[in-house]
């Protein structure tokens, strides 16, 4: 029996399509995603993770039904028109994303496709969404290197390292939060090589020691193996690239955006850094205030 009437198509992604539908029985309007691979959400119940409300098969396709959200983080930053967010807003967004990511990792998964379009917002509530590329941490099968959107792709993926794991999510979070502060992308690479160059220009090349990051021998060897030529580039430093970041936010970014994956901070440890020690606004689901913007409907999660 048909349970939902499709209202409209909201967006098309590489691994899913997002539609707006109305439940025939209750009249509730929801967002629904057709998916190719996903099963983790049944185990991931958290205030900062999108809620899976239902699933059904229709016309030989399988659908997952999620709570309706107003917009994504890309739309939020774009709506600012280069006007920076306040510190409380930045810290609230940061904390909520990290809470969601910490829960994902602590329950045996990593996301693999974190980007502003996959961070959804309603009022003051922030939720991680789009788990089409989610992977179990205990699954040791070879993983593809073509995942996530280039601007948020960790250097170990760009360099096609044999193994990668949850630290790639923390790199993506760092790039996302830098974008929230700057109201523009931190590493907007035009292709894979340009992306690496932009990262090395700011963070330094992998064969040099950078603060707490240390020398990343595997990255340097992999770059040589791929024929990637780079000179010994000293780190420019995030403080020069993001001068408007508070010292506490800058410290958070410096712990997240570390070239050497094993030296990147975990999500749970990041939540213990000084930036979150002062009271951070904690908003309950259903709070209809907004993050300083006028809301508009979700258009895409591509």
From TrEMBL:
Protein kinase domain spans which residues? Answer: 4-276
Q: Which keywords are on file for this protein?
A: ATP-binding, Kinase, Nucleotide-binding, Nucleus, Serine/threonine-protein kinase, Transferase
A GO-annotated cellular component: nucleus
GO MF entries:
ATP binding; protein serine/threonine kinase activity
User: Where in the cell?
Assistant: Nucleus
Q: Which SUPFAM superfamilies match?
A: Protein kinase-like (PK-like)
| Pfam (any one) | Pkinase
Instruction: Give the InterPro entries listed for this entry.
Output: Kinase-like_dom_sf, MAPK, Prot_kinase_dom, Ser/Thr_kinase_AS
- The keyword Nucleotide-binding is annotated on this UniProt entry: yes
* Chief location of this protein within or outside the cell: nucleus
The name under which this protein is listed is Kinase-like domain-containing protein
Q: Which species does the entry assign this protein to?
A: Dimargaris cristalligena
